[in-house]
Amino acid sequence: MSWNIAEKPIRACVFDAYGTLFDVHSAVAGHRQRIGGQAQAMSALWRQKQLEYTWLRSLMGRYVDFDTLTADALEYAMDSYAIDDQPLTRDLLDAYRELSCYPEVPGVLQRLRDGGLPTAILSNGTEATLRHASRSAGLDNSLDRILSVESLQIYKPDPRVYQLAVDALDLPAEQILFHSSNAWDAAGAATFGMRVAWINRRGAIPERLPDGPDLELETLQPVPDLLGLG
């Protein structure tokens, strides 16, 4: 991995939302007692199916919005663990709209904004849900743009998704630093031509995909310093 900030300056920072800014497992964590000992495994399966459905529906040309897809993935996960509880289902979906952000996120976004760098979310999520989650986590005043795939009706890592950020920010891809906790998303953005920070929160091994990230970090905390911000 290489990083030469002087050679190609960064003019904006763009973030994946789920898993990068927001803890996708905080929804289940808030209802752990109601789910029992299988809560962690069910949360992992929910997330796995959610991602799989984005890829599969994109390949099939059968788009549904991310809220619908998230509900489908939860139904699969609950059925897999023989949990039949409609009030719990509703509460988990409500909790997904108000996920906790990771502890360092508010401070990092504020430092970037204070340093003169525009900040944006680029996400598979629906714009309404992303805005609600950002307000709930207190991030709405630290973000310049919230960009959703809804207008395209295709999911990451389709190159057209990353083009949304280029168009919205009016910057070339190589002047945008894209952050994602998902290695496949990091590869997609790098292949598109963005500079990429892989926020490897869970110590995953690198994917065997074209074009890796410029940086691998455990959290977002070091980003402002790496960009030379005071």
Tell me about this structure:
- Helix 3 crosses helix 4.
- The relative contact order is 0.17.
- Helix 7 links the parallel strand 2 and strand 3.
- A six-stranded parallel beta sheet has the order 3-2-1-4-5-6, with helices on both faces.
- The model has no long low-confidence stretch (mean pLDDT 95).
- With 230 residues, it is of the alpha/beta class.
- It folds into two domains: 140 residues, HAD superfamily/HAD-like (Rossmann fold); 71 residues, Orthogonal Bundle (DNA polymerase, domain 1).
Structural features:
230 residues; alpha/beta; single chain; Rossmann fold; 10 helices; six-stranded parallel beta sheet; DNA polymerase, domain 1
Helix content percent band: 40-55%
- Please state the second-level CATH architecture of the largest domain: 3-Layer(aba) Sandwich
Spatial ordering of strands, largest sheet: 3-2-1-4-5-6
Topology as H/E string?
EHHHHHHEHEHEHEEH
Q: What is the global morphology?
A: globular
Largest sheet descriptor: 6 strands, parallel
- What is the structural class? alpha/beta
CATH evolutionary superfamily of the largest domain = HAD superfamily/HAD-like
Q: Return the domain count.
A: 2
Low-confidence stretches: none
Q: What's the N-to-C terminus distance?
A: 24 Å
- Beta content comes to 5-15%
Mean pLDDT: 95
Instruction: Work out the helix count.
Output: 10
Work out the number of β strands: 6
Give Rg in angstroms.
17 Å
CATH level 1 name of the largest domain: Alpha Beta
Briefly note the CATH topology name of the largest domain.
Answer: Rossmann fold
